[in-house]
Design a protein that fits this description.
The protein is built from 15 helices and 12 strands. It has helices at residues 2-21, 25-34, 38-45, 53-63, 97-105, 123-129, 154-157, 163-170, 189-194, 207-213, 234-238, 259-268, 289-328, 397-430, 490-498; strands spanning 86-90, 110-117, 139-144, 179-184, 223-227, 249-251, 274-277, 376-379, 387-390, 434-438, 450-452, 473-475. Helix 6 (123-129) packs parallel to helix 8, helix 8 runs parallel beside helix 10 (207-213) and helix 12 packs across helix 13 (289-328). The protein is elongated, with a radius of gyration of 32 Å.
C-alpha cells in the first residue's frame, strides 16, 4: 500500500515539473515576434494613424523591447503642440543643411540646441540659423567635424570657415545663456596617421573668440567648453577685458595650453571653480613631479598676479585722469622737442627705419609737477579653484600619487606667498596707504569693481584657514568614463552640464 502511494506521488511530481517547464503562450508569442525582420515592422508602422504615429511607435518599442523595431520611425513624424520650451538636437554628421535651416526657422523659441556640423554644412547655413537672436535659448552646443569617414581638405580648399558663426552670436543682445559649447573634433588617429592627414581648420582666425567673450550676449555665461585642437587660444581669451564674470566651469581640452597660459586664464576668469585641460601639455614632462609643484603654486597665486595687474591699470587711469583734468584747467603741459631754425644738412634722412610703435605699447602720460597721484593697493582675493582636470598618459598609480602630492605641496607654498603679501599690505594699510579689494562683479575700469577696505577682515578672513582653502582636486583621468576619476572632479560636473562624456 505504501509502495503504491509513493509511486503515485512520484508520478504527480513528474507531471507537475513537466507542466512548469513548458513555455507559456505569451512567452512563445514574444519569441516569435523577436524573430520577425525589421522590414516587416516598418511595413506595419507605415499603416499607423498620423495623429498618434509617434506615440504608437514608442509604445510598440516598449511593449516588445527585444524585437528589432526600427526606432528611427520615432523621428519621421514629429508633432509640436507647444512652441515654448523645445529641445532640439541633430546628432548625425550627414544631414540636409538646407532643410535644417528651414526647420529651425519655424522654431524660434528653442530652449536647447545641439548641432553636429558635418561636411554638408557651409558657413552660410549657420549664419542663417543664428541671424536672428533666440531669446529663450539656454543651452547651445556646436560640434564641428569637417569630414566623416573620408579625410578631405574640401572645406579648407574652398575657404569655408565658420568665423562668421562666432561673429553672429556676438551681435545678439544680453540674454541669459548659462551653457555654451563649441567643439571641433580632432582627427581620428587611424585616419591622420595612415594618410598623414593634418588637422583641418574650422576657424581661420581666432579673434572672433575674443569678440564673442566680450559681447553682452554671454555676459551671464556659467559653463563654457571651447575645444579647438592644437590652436593657441589662450592669448585670445586671457588678454581681453574682464568678461563673463559668472563663469564657473571652463573646458579648453585639446587646445594648445601650457602651464604659463594657466596663470593668465585664472587671472582673467577669476571665478573659475573647475578648469578642464584634457589633452593639453600643461606639464612639459608629465612624469616630473617638480612640474606639478609649479602648477599647484600657479593655481594658488594667480589672485596675487591679478591684484598686481589691476593696480597697474588703476594707476594708469589715475594718471590719465590727472593729466586730463589739468589740461582742461589750463595748466601748461611739458613742452615737446624744440625744433631749431635753419637749413637741414643734405645727409639728413627723410625717412626712418625704426618700427612704428604698436597699439599695444602704453602711451606715456605726462603728469604736471605738483600733482600727486594717490597710491592705492589692492588686496588679493582667496583662490576659488575647486578642481583641475587633465590627462596624464602612461603614468603609473604610484606616479599619480606622487604627482598629486607635489601639486598639493605647490598649492600650500603658494598660500604661504599669498599670506605674506597680505601681511605686507596690512602693514601698509596701518601706515595710511589706501587699500581696496575686488567686489563680486570685478569688471570695468577706474574704481569700478573695487571697494575700500575699512577693517582687518580683508587681510585675515576665515577663508584663510586650511580647511576652506584645501587644494583643488587634481584629476588625471582625461576625457571619457573609463579612467580613474577623482570624486568631485570637474569631469563629473561637465558630464551633467553637456549630457555627454567626450
Amino acid at each position: 500500500m505504501s509502495h503504491e502511494i509513493s509511486e503515485s506521488h512520484s508520478v504527480a511530481a513528474v507531471t507537475t515539473t513537466s507542466a512548469a517547464s513548458l513555455p507559456s503562450p505569451t512567452s512563445m508569442l514574444m519569441r516569435q515576434l523577436d524573430r520577425l525582420p525589421a522590414e516587416l515592422y516598418s511595413a506595419i508602422i507605415s499603416h499607423l494613424p498620423a495623429d498618434s504615429f509617434q506615440q504608437d511607435v514608442l509604445a510598440l518599442t516598449r511593449a516588445i523591447p527585444k524585437s528589432p523595431v526600427p526606432i528611427y520611425h520615432l523621428f519621421e513624424r514629429i508633432h509640436l503642440k507647444h512652441a515654448q520650451q523645445i529641445d532640439f538636437g541633430i546628432v548625425t554628421w550627414t544631414v540636409d543643411a538646407d532643410v535644417l535651416v528651414n526647420l529651425l526657422g519655424i522654431l524660434p523659441r528653442i530652449s536647447s540646441l545641439l548641432l553636429f556640423v558635418g561636411p554638408n554644412f557651409a558657413p552660410e547655413h549657420l549664419e542663417d540659423i543664428f541671424h536672428e537672436p533666440r531669446e529663450d535659448l539656454r543651452f547651445l552646443s556646436l560640434r564641428f567635424r569637417p569630414y566623416v569617414q573620408k579625410a578631405t581638405y574640401f572645406q579648407f580648399l574652398k575657404g569655408a570657415y565658420f568665423d562668421t558663426t562666432l561673429t553672429a552670436l556676438s551681435r545678439w543682445p544680453s540674454y541669459k545663456l548659462p551653457a555654451l559649447s563649441i567643439v571641433q573634433d580632432p582627427p581620428e588617429p587611424l585616419i591622420s596617421s595612415a594618410k598623414h592627414f593634418a588637422q583641418p581648420l574650422v576657424f581661420f582666425r581666432l579673434e572672433p573668440i575674443s569678440v564673442l567673450l566680450c559681447s553682452k550676449y554671454i555676459s551671464s555665461l556659467i559653463h563654457l567648453r571651447l575645444r579647438i585642437p592644437s590652436r593657441q587660444v589662450s592669448r585670445f581669451i586671457s588678454s581681453i577685458p574682464s568678461s563673463v564674470p559668472a563663469l564657473r566651469l571652463l573646458d579648453l581640452s585639446t587646445c594648445n595650453i601650457l602651464a604659463s597660459d594657466m596663470e593668465g586664464i585664472l587671472i582673467r576668469f577669476h571665478g573659475i571653480q573647475h578648469l578642464i585641460l584634457d589633452g593639453c601639455s600643461i606639464a612639459r614632462d608629465q612624469s616630473q613631479a617638480t612640474e606639478w609643484n609649479n602648477i599647484g603654486k600657479i593655481c594658488a597665486t594667480a589672485t596675487v598676479r591679478r591684484a598686481k595687474a589691476r593696480e597697474k591699470e588703476l594707476k594708469t587711469w589715475l594718471q590719465h585722469n590727472a593729466a586730463t583734468t589739468t589740461t582742461l584747467a589750463g595748466i601748461p603741459q611739458p613742452a615737446g622737442r624744440r625744433i631749431r631754425p635753419g637749413r637741414r644738412g643734405l645727409a639728413t634722412a627723410t625717412i626712418s627705419l625704426r618700427e612704428e610703435p604698436t597699439a599695444s605699447e602704453p602711451d606715456i602720460i605726462h603728469v604736471p609737477a605738483g600733482i600727486v597721484i594717490p597710491k592705492v593697493r589692492i588686496v588679493p582675493s582667496p583662490p576659488v579653484l575647486l578642481s583641475l582636470c587633465t590627462s596624464a598618459s602612461f603614468i603609473t598609480d604610484i606616479q599619480h600619487q606622487t604627482i598629486r602630492e607635489e601639486f598639493e605641496k605647490g598649492w600650500d607654498e603658494g598660500l604661504v606667498q599669498l599670506a605674506a603679501v597680505k601681511s605686507r599690505l596690512y602693514g601698509s594699510w596701518k601706515n595710511g596707504i589706501r587699500m581696496m579689494r575686488f567686489t563680486a562683479d570685478a569688471s570695468g575700469g577706474g574704481y569700478d569693481g573695487l571697494e575700500s577696505i575699512e577693517g582687518d577682515n580683508a587681510f585675515y578672513s576665515e577663508q584663510d584657514g586650511n580647511a576652506s582653502l584645501a587644494p583643488p582636486v587634481l584629476c588625471l583621468a582625461g576625457s571619457g568614463t573609463s579612467g580613474k576619476h577623482i570624486e568631485g572632479c570637474g569631469h563629473n560636473i561637465a558630464w551633467n552640464v553637456w549630457n555627454d562624456t567626450i
